[in-house]
Write a structure and sequence with these properties.
It is built from twelve helices and 20 strands. The chain has helices at residues 19-34, 58-74, 95-99, 112-122, 164-168, 176-188, 224-237, 257-261, 278-284, 290-303, 322-335, 362-385, and strands at residues 10-15, 38-40, 48-53, 78-82, 105-106, 146-150, 152-153, 172-173, 193-197, 212-215, 218-221, 241-244, 268-270, 308-315, 339-344, 391-398, 407-410, 422-424, 439-448, 451-456. Strands 2-1-3-4-5 form a five-stranded parallel β-sheet, with helices on both faces. A five-stranded mixed β-barrel has the order 16-17-18-20-19. A three-stranded parallel β-sheet has the order 6-9-12. α3 links the parallel β4 and β5. It is globular, with a radius of gyration of 23 Å.
Length: 457
């Protein structure tokens, strides 16, 4: 008969939202494991459930509230954390607690200790100090061959459509030595792709006045260029990739392009342009104009012809005229955005944009989003077709039967979950095998939608 006293309490976990929220989930799961808690893959097998929420747009709020409701229905003991946990109603009450008053506790984002305190209040702490329960890299929710590295928290911008600063606060950069030490552990654990994330990657270190930190006894400035240089060196030693996300088009980003041209950092930039017309950008309170964005992007492509740019845009922002929208479409064509996503503008509770005049009907917003995506897809497909005949390095994500029937991978142009893939056909050589988490070379023979088709060589 099993001694129930030796069975550790089990915690269920639901992680929603963006990669930055995912890293918060990983921190919480790492701490749970360090203290001896087990995780449960089912609601009914858990002593309580933690739901890490997203609260940025209405669809995300609904998804999070539905997930909380499901956890309450299936388990009954729920702790809520994440961006939605920081949202207030018009009356100033906590939104989650108003909708779901039976939750055990609610915290905002980036609140590992507060979550753990709530866990301790409701299920006993089982930590055994004589047993090491956590791998050196912590608990990861991604496949073993790629991982997200969050370099800062919060944002100094006050974009009128966004409420993230009210939930996550102003920019707080992590010490550069701490970031690089985590990166080294990840590479040593077998990670082949490191995805750098934050609310504003380009602003890394500005809050610390770019002060000098130390990594392995060497001075390193807390600034994006020096961080990328060091990450590139670490990645090269392990034959791995470094990919940059959420990069605002500030002038000093120009300094990163030589690292991309030389292969130290992937020639890939995730740049949240949001729009292109100066008047719309001004209403959004974005930190750059459309003209400067186009000039900078063209200069980046001259410095690094292999550069791939992905971006997100908003169609139907309050006051957007047909002329302003046409300027956005022309920007996508001229800038040759490789990967573009678009949201129809959606009012977010607490956002300053709600008070702007000229709100557009929902039907028009959706119609413009559809028109945008049609143009963006034309640009993307034409750029993909240029790769036919090329041989590319591909990181294998899936390879049933060692790839004898083919597999799925990604090139440097494809970030996981948000971009396309490379569909790998069965190898022509019988001796060729594919392994998840390893690189292969593939000759590109076709395009299918947003994906490439390649034959492993």
């Amino acid at each position: 008969m099993q001694d129930t006293a030796t069975v550790p309490p089990k915690v269920g976990f639901v992680s929603l939202g963006c990669p930055k929220a995912l890293t918060d989930s990983e921190l919480i799961l790492t701490q749970l494991s360090a203290e001896g808690y087990a995780t449960s893959k089912t609601y009914d097998g858990a002593d309580l459930v933690i739901v890490n929420t997203c609260g940025f747009i209405d669809e995300a709020v609904k998804e999070s509230l539905d997930a909380i409701g499901e956890a309450l229905s299936e388990n009954g003991r729920v702790i809520v954390t994440g961006c939605l946990g920081a949202r207030k109603t018009d009356g100033g009450d906590n939104l989650v607690q108003q909708v779901h008053p039976k939750v055990l506790a609610v915290t905002g984002p980036h609140a590992t200790q507060e979550v753990m305190d709530a866990v301790h209040r409701h299920i006993p702490k089982p930590h055994d100090p004589f047993v090491d329960l956590v791998p050196p890299v912590g608990i990861k929710l991604t496949p073993k061959h790629y991982a997200y590295l969050k370099i800062s928290e919060g944002c100094n911008h006050r974009c009128t459509f966004c409420i993230i600063p009210s939930m996550r606060g102003d920019l707080v950069s992590r010490p550069v030595g701490e970031v690089l030490a985590e990166a080294r552990k990840l590479f040593e654990s077998g990670v082949k792709e490191l995805l750098v994330v934050s609310q504003d990657t380009s602003a890394y270190g500005v809050d610390l006045k770019y002060r000098t930190g130390f990594f392995e006894g060497k001075p390193v400035r807390t600034r994006l260029l020096e961080l990328c240089t060091e990450l590139g060196d670490l990645a090269a030693a392990h034959g791995a990739w470094v990919r940059l996300h959420y990069v605002y088009p500030y002038p000093h980003v120009d300094d990163i392009l030589p690292l991309m041209a030389s292969g130290r950092v992937l020639p890939y930039l995730d740049v949240p342009f949001q729009h292109a017309h100066p008047a719309v950008l001004a209403r959004m309170k974005r930190p750059a104009s459309g003209e400067r964005n186009l000039e900078r992007l063209l200069a980046w492509r001259r410095a690094c012809p292999e550069l791939v740019v992905r971006s997100t845009f908003i169609a139907g922002f309050p006051g957007e005229t047909e002329e302003e929208f046409d300027a956005l479409l022309e920007f996508v064509r001229e800038a040759q955005i490789d990967r573009a996503g678009c949201f129809a503008y959606s009012p977010v509770a607490g956002a300053a944009a709600n008070a702007l005049p000229g709100a557009l009907p929902a039907e028009l917003r959706e119609e413009r989003r559809a028109r945008f995506m049609a143009v963006a897809e034309q640009v993307s497909v034409l750029r993909l077709q240029r790769r036919i005949g090329a041989t590319m390095q591909v990181l294998v994500d899936s390879a049933p039967a060692l790839g004898r029937k083919g597999g799925v991978g990604r090139s440097y142009a494809d970030a996981p979950e948000i971009d396309g893939t490379v569909r790998l056909l069965p190898p022509e050589k019988a001796s060729k095998v594919l392994k998840v988490g390893e690189f292969t070379r593939a000759r590109i023979v076709g395009v299918e939608g947003h994906d490439l088709i390649g034959i492993p060589t």
